[in-house]
Design a protein that fits this description.
Quinone Oxidoreductase, Chain A, domain 1; 388 residues; 6-stranded parallel beta sheet; Rossmann fold
């Protein structure tokens, strides 16, 4: 279905002015039951609040979290049915609320601009106001998590239109950046940027070890390579993803399908003069990676956890933390400043890193189930949803 966008011609003072009519409904890929096929529904588009924005979705990319949401892994924490799927989104402004005129950097916003946006933090809680950690906000509205039953309903990227809430930070997408590449950076890379800011500066003599070769791991790898560290090691699978890691500058690769944890530990200690990596970044999502990763950090080193989504407990010896004086940090999501920096990183360094290597096939809304399957089976790294 394509929303009617009939252009009306108005005459004022003898001049012709064109105004696009405000759409009434949007097609959207809706999850009504966990582990059952997503269905395309027509969803009413609400009236625009003064500080809100309506965008026509240009493209969304599929995240590994979308698969977890589909399977019901987050139903007791975040996701609420029914929901419009998708949270890696960029869209073109279809209508601006009368009070929304500039993005987070101060640039003027206009209809037709391609934008990305953060989640809507409440702005009134302890985490938002006192400790300035809005990504811990318990009253945030997050895109792709639902529920569809709550206004303004259109808060998912697998749809023709999406509603940017008044509290969302917004940034323009750089002109020379491919929209699908931009969308792919609005979850994995913005969280990586957040993580690197939290864990502290990188040094030219650092060895950085990346656990995981999915989008989070590959973006974390690119960031470390661009920072000019001495050595970057990547552990992951399959080889098609490890090949991207090599292409992007990884010095050493270890396949989890071909090596054991003990073999990897022995090899990595040898590469680091028996010490271990200065910084290990967990990007795999698997709980078992925590137990391995903590043993690969050198004494006095740092461990950054970004990718964890495994509900199963992991066994870690507490003595590894105090006796070895490790710094351990975890991060979740990101603020609008991280989105801006992520998009700028993609735009500034696309000649060095072939970011398009992450992108998969393009799917319409009616083929979202196929895209989710491709992601789950790791046949594609970033399937692309094109709603129209």
């Amino acid at each position: 279905m394509h929303v009617d966008e009939t252009v009306k011609a108005l005459s004022r003072f003898g001049r012709s002015i064109t105004v696009m009519s405000y759409p009434k409904t949007s097609a959207a890929a809706v999850l009504t039951k966990y582990n059952e096929p997503v269905e395309v529904h027509e969803v009413a588009i609400p009236e625009l609040e003064p500080d809100a924005i309506l965008v026509r979705v240009e493209v969304s990319t599929v995240c590994g979290t979308d698969v977890h949401i589909y399977e019901g892994d987050f139903q007791h924490v975040f996701s609420k049915l029914p929901l419009i799927m998708g949270h890696e989104i960029v869209g073109r402004i279809a209508a601006l609320g009368r009070n929304r005129r500039r993005d987070a950097t101060g640039q003027a916003l206009h209809e037709g601009d391609l934008v990305a946006w953060s989640y809507a933090w409440c702005g009134t809680c302890y985490y938002c106001n006192v400790v300035k950690q809005p990504t811990l906000c318990r009253d945030a509205r997050m895109y792709g998590y639902g529920p569809l039953t709550e206004p303004p309903h259109l808060t998912g990227g697998f749809a023709e239109y999406c509603y940017i809430l008044p509290r969302c930070g917004v940034v323009k997408v750089p002109d020379k950046l491919d929209p699908a590449t931009a969308a792919s950076g609005t979850c994995a890379l913005r969280t990586v940027v957040h993580g690197y800011e939290k864990i502290g500066a990188l040094s030219a003599y650092d060895t950085v070890l990346i656990q995981g070769s999915g989008p989070i791991g590959l973006y974390a790898l690119a960031y470390a390579v661009q920072a000019g560290v001495a050595r970057v090691i990547c552990i992951g699978a399959p080889w098609s993803r490890l090949a991207i890691a090599r292409k992007w500058g990884a010095n050493d690769l270890f396949s989890i399908e071909e090596t054991s944890a003990e073999q990897r530990r022995e090899a990595i200690l040898k590469l680091t003069d028996g010490r271990g990596a200065d910084l290990v970044i967990e990007c795999s999502g698997f709980g078992i990676a925590l137990a391995e990763g903590i043993e690969l950090v050198r004494p006095g080193g740092r461990y950054l956890v970004i990718g964890q989504s495994d509900p199963r407990p992991a066994q870690i010896r507490g003595t590894y933390l105090n006796h070895r004086q490790l710094t351990v940090m975890g991060v979740n999501s990101a603020e609008i400043g991280h989105y801006y920096k992520a998009l700028k990183f993609l735009s500034d360094h696309q000649d060095r890193f072939s970011f398009a290597d992450l992108l998969g096939q393009r799917y319409s809304l009616s083929h979202v189930n196929e895209a989710l399957c491709a992601m789950k089976e790791m046949r594609e790294t970033k399937p692309i949803i094109v709603p129209s």
